[in-house]
Amino acid sequence: MGSVRKTTLKAGKKALALSSIFSVRFENLSFLIPLSLMLLFWEFSLRLNIISPEVLPAPSQILSVLLLNLLVKPEFTISLFESLLTITMGIVVAILLALPLAIVTGLKTRIDSSVTPLMMVVGALPDVALMPFFIYWFGKGTATALLIAVMVAFFPLFFTLREGVKHIPSDYFHVAFVFNAGGLKLFTKLIFPAILPQFITGVRLAYEFLWEVILAVEVIARIHGVGFLINLAVGEGSLTQAFAGIFMVGIVVILVDRLVFQVIESRVKRWHD
Amino acid sequence: MRILEARNVAKYHKTFNGKHSPTLEKISFDVKKKEFLCIVGPSGCGKSTLLKILAGLERPSEGEVRLYGEPVLSPHPKISMVFQNFALFPWRTVIQNIEFGLETQGVPKTVRRKIAEELVNLMGLKGYENAYPKDLSGGMRQRVAIARALAVDPDIVLMDEAFSAIDEYTAQILRSEVLELWEDYDKSFILVTHNLAEALEMGDRIIILTRKPAKVKHVYHVNLKRPRRRSQPQFLKCLKELFTILENELEHTIVRHKLKSIYEHHKLDDMESY
Questions:
Q1: What is the interface pTM, i.e. ipTM, of the complex?
Q2: I want to staple B191 with a disulfide (CB 3.0 to 4.6 A). Which of A45, A69, B73, B159 is the partner?
Q3: What is the pTM of this model?
Q4: How close B173 comes to chain A (CA, Å)?
């Protein structure tokens, strides 16, 4: 009797686990439905000659060019990594700058009230409009791209992290001090874990902004990267090649979002409500 | 044996026009080994400030706090604390929260895990080791906070309104459990509360503070046998005595209202019939 009950219980648990995996999978992949509908609509409007392929190439054609590029055109893949490198470096440097400043302004009201208004003014300036200045000062090259990336990533990071630090309850600091967690431990055991949700939000925002701005920078300043490649392809009249670049960016953005951000976020969700 | 002593502790806060506004004025008392000391006073009289000074979280403007004769200038490993709103770290599980103090002291992982597991059993948290605070009730959270405070093996446990944010029924159970803990170990407890009945139930001595700026108005020695029951005639008599001492301090404070309801709840008006 006991063993029978145990096995049914086990089977029940297994079924529950499976169904929850499926529901998670389904939820994660549900974005594919509108996406594929859009691609189908696009494909059929070309097949039915509603749109001319000279104006807009068919998605099936773009995807096959994309696959072929990835296999035989190394410069295509390299350009992707060039853009990704600029974006990643920009975010890393911006974190190194924004984190200490966010902690200081988040903890010290007096410093906050003198520094933060300035940050708001500078942060509100349109990044793309500042691009000519950067090009004028630093030339058309990697340095300019990186500096712009840092600037774009800095502000969303700074403001979300500062908000996170401000919201740490003062009792948490009392707990840390009572249990002798001062200095570096205060950062590793209290401040950083406490602001982790805002940290993820900040990095995610910075990442999204950066793709837009960096592609524009590559087009305008003719810096190597996906944007540069797209611009080149359009100039040569090869729309399929240009769209292959755009598709690749889209796929990378979705992959990073699903595999990096959502995985970390689901870990944070276990304790954060 | 005297463990902790407060000598002429005063605290001034600077106001916007540069004047010093006093919160605490020349407060002196000492805490003996294994004593249960309660500190009561009207809301906003500076009880919590006093407790923070005892914990080494704040420095007194004048006077000093000494532990075993040595001045307390910063938090001391032998002084631990429980907070009104639990103050558990939400990103840590129950067992990780309990381990926190040991972790910052650099106790090896296997050792601290063992100590934490013992406290899990002691505080009735078995089965919740890997839960996060958000999934626990207020009473359970405070159990975790008490376990965290005990994990570092303190000589003195400070409790700041530790039972005020919990529903009364759970608080009642938790109080008797804390008393059991206190009886089983050689630790001194200092409980700050605005609840006179709670102070009377738990304390060996009760320090009654005046309105802000707080001074020691009276030190009340509780001569009731343990375990104390709130329905005992002797208990009610002491409660009325305490209330009379504090009453003058309660004008214009919200506590007066709160105490009045306790007063009515225990039908202190019928006292004379006992």
A1: 0.87
A2: B159
A3: 0.84
A4: 25
